[in-house]
Amino acid sequence: FSPQVDSANAGRVLASDAAVFLKKSGLTDLVLGKIWDLADTDGKGILNKQEFFVALRLVACAQNGLDVSLSSLNLPVPPPRFTDTSSPLLLSGTASSDVPWAVKLEDKAKYDAIFDSLNPVNGLLSGDKVKPVLLNSKLPVDILGRVWELSDIDRDGMLDRDEFAVAMFLVYCALEKEPVPMSLPAALVPPSKRKPVSVPGAMPLIPPSTSTKESHQSLPPVGILAAKTPLTQ
């Protein structure tokens, strides 16, 4: 029972503490609210150890595209992922750089062919170009909206080759009647988009400065710094 959550060591978790912790799962408030309602069986706003484990299990279900319901509790799912590396019990979503990409090579070749046929500009497709392809699947608009949200990983309103492959993968999953997950599972994040695991205590490239103008004058651009660091190490 993690000291991060049960700070008073009382064997139970208050709603406020649990909310902060569960938010690190990356799920929406709506989904987390549903998870809490199912886990807090007596409606007291406090979870005991058993109820807290139910909440964690439901988080894992939601992250892997399963329904948030008590019937999903018996299904096999990987452990829940939380964006916090300070606890050895928790798997950070970013630590999954070793997980093989869920998009198979032969499928990627098909998706790349579709991508190229849509005339990408500088290796990117705008939402206007992707939209007809998504609508062509005849999936409900809310599902397609979620597919777009999940596949536009860097949130720039455009899809690159890898992001487009994620979108196509999710569309085909939905067509096979598999639910589209609420948050992108680690295995679906393209290797090119996976963040390296940050080393605790690593120095940031640019120290925080009170005035941005100062930092621009006293430091070379980030690109140059990044290029120099291997030599200085």
Automatic annotation (TrEMBL):
Pfam families on file: EH
Residues covered by region (Disordered): 199-233
Gene Ontology BP term (one): endosomal transport
SMART domains: EFh (SM00054), EH (SM00027)
Sorted UniProt keywords: Calcium, Metal-binding
One GO molecular-function entry: cadherin binding
GO cellular component: clathrin coat of coated pit
Chain ranges of the EF-hand domain: 27-62, 139-174
Domain EH: residue ranges: 1-83, 107-195
Keyword Glycosyltransferase found: no
UniProt-recorded name of the protein: EPS15 factor
Species the sequence originates in: Anhinga anhinga
Lineage of producing organism: Eukaryota, Metazoa, Chordata, Craniata, Vertebrata
